[in-house]
Model the fold of this input.
Amino acid sequence: MNDFNTQLRNEFEKARQARINKNEGQARVCARRAAGIAIRAYLTRKGKQVPNMSAYDLLNLLKEDASLPPNLQLIVDHLTVRVTEEFDLPIEADLIAESRVLCDWLLYSEA
Done:
């Protein structure tokens, strides 16, 4: 668990730095990677064999988890939304903050 926490802290710090540097695209990538780390920890804790997948693929795999509350299902949807041709997010969402909420639930829920 500790290794996951270190990896998460690093990704969220990279996301914060990217946002400070006005690189929202990189901030989104880091938020997704953080979610991927937490999903891997969550699935491992549930005794599932986790294939070597990208964070994006892990997010799509998590969409199939019926135990995920609706508010977190929405966050997973936000984290998998494709950007526009201008590389903008077509929804109003703070993916870093949403990813933190999702990661907290995945790492500390009893589900």
Summary: The mean pLDDT is 90. The longest helix spans residues 24-45. The domain at 2-108 is CATH 1.20.120.330 (Four Helix Bundle (Hemerythrin (Met), subunit A)). Helices lie at 2-20, 24-45, 55-62, 70-79, 95-108.
